[in-house]
């Protein structure tokens, strides 16, 4: 059996969507998945270096790795009226060139932030350190992601929602693309299709069995938040819309890549559907 490396972030939605595989509820046909967790920018950088077979990434990274990785249709996170938050200490006035902490150069929130605040002075740090950096004055503001958007300190307030920036830039009516997964193109096509189908099934099974899986993850200490926060967070980022990319989500991805191209962050304009695994191949082969 081949061993396939699968890297995901340690945030609650990624762990939730993957652990149906870890617990043996779902498995690929011809391989064993070996998983590891790291913060999203570490995974973005690792994908640039081609380190993992399957990897969670920020959607904003994908145009940089499109030649080596196919975009997967599952385990996706989108914001629908919510998303990362730009926070500062209460009553602090931000100057045009304020110093801000972001969770990584290739994150989706960084792309949108740079478009919205071209004069801000950016420093990158692990997403777990951003809240404290704002509290102790290391930076003037920071963009919180993952569970921090629900649990940040009472001394902080939201300066601006990344959702509002997205609405203004995109023209409205589209979900905010945050993160997804990609798969190494050198993997044989029939195996790639199986691995993607395994992940789709895992997300589907996790979502349908949330009342069983969520307490198991909490009991094993795999989640950083309490039961109520986990429930709220999964409502946001691990739900029916995470199982398989929808037409509206494809449209949102294309708008994200159009904005990145228009503002000079990408050298070419891409359409998300052009970079998927051609899963119809298995059906054609069977006929």
From TrEMBL:
<comment type="function">
    <text>Catalyzes the conversion of cyclic dehypoxanthine futalosine (cyclic DHFL) into 1,4-dihydroxy-6-naphthoate, a step in the biosynthesis of menaquinone (MK, vitamin K2).</text>
</comment>
<dbReference type="Pfam" id="PF02621">
    <property type="entry name" value="VitK2_biosynth"/>
</dbReference>
<dbReference type="GO" id="GO:0009234">
    <property type="term" value="P:menaquinone biosynthetic process"/>
</dbReference>
<keyword id="KW-0436">Ligase</keyword>
<comment type="similarity">
    <text>Belongs to the MqnA/MqnD family. MqnD subfamily.</text>
</comment>
<protein>
    <recommendedName>
        <fullName>1,4-dihydroxy-6-naphtoate synthase</fullName>
        <ecNumber>4.1.99.29</ecNumber>
    </recommendedName>
</protein>
<keyword id="KW-0474">Menaquinone biosynthesis</keyword>
<dbReference type="GO" id="GO:0016830">
    <property type="term" value="F:carbon-carbon lyase activity"/>
</dbReference>
<dbReference type="InterPro" id="IPR003773">
    <property type="entry name" value="Menaquinone_biosynth"/>
</dbReference>
<dbReference type="GO" id="GO:0016874">
    <property type="term" value="F:ligase activity"/>
</dbReference>
<feature type="active site" description="Proton acceptor">
    <location>
        <position position="146"/>
    </location>
</feature>
<dbReference type="InterPro" id="IPR030869">
    <property type="entry name" value="MqnD"/>
</dbReference>
<comment type="pathway">
    <text>Quinol/quinone metabolism; menaquinone biosynthesis.</text>
</comment>
<keyword id="KW-0456">Lyase</keyword>
């Amino acid at each position: 059996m081949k061993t396939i490396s699968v890297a995901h972030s340690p945030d609650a939605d990624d762990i939730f969507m993957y652990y149906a595989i870890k617990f043996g509820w779902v498995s690929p046909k011809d391989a064993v998945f070996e998983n590891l967790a790291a913060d999203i920018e570490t995974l973005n950088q690792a994908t640039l270096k081609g380190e993992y077979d399957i990897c969670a990434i920020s959607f904003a990274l994908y145009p940089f790795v499109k030649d080596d990785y196919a975009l997967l249709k599952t385990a996706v996170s989108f914001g629908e009226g919510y998303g990362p938050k730009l926070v500062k200490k209460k009553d602090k006035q931000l100057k045009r060139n304020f110093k801000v902490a972001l969770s990584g150069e290739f994150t989706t929130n960084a792309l949108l932030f740079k478009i919205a605040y071209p004069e801000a002075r950016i420093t990158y740090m692990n997403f777990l350190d951003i809240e404290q950096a704002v509290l102790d004055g290391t930076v003037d503001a920071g963009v919180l992601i993952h569970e921090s958007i629900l649990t940040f300190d009472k001394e902080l307030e939201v300066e601006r929602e990344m959702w509002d920036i997205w609405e203004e830039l995109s023209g409205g009516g589209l979900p905010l693309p945050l993160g997804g997964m990609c798969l190494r193109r050198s993997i044989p096509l029939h195996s790639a299709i199986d691995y993607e189908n395994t992940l789709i099934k895992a997300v589907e099974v996790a979502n349908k069995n949330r009342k069983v899986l969520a307490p198991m993850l909490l009991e094993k200490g795999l989640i950083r938040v309490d039961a109520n926060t986990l429930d709220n967070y999964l409502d946001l980022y691990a739900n029916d819309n995470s199982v398989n990319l929808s037409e509206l989500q494809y449209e949102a991805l294309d708008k994200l890549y159009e904005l990145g191209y228009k503002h000079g962050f990408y050298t070419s304009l891409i359409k998300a559907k052009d970079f998927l695994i051609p899963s119809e191949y298995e059906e054609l082969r069977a006929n």
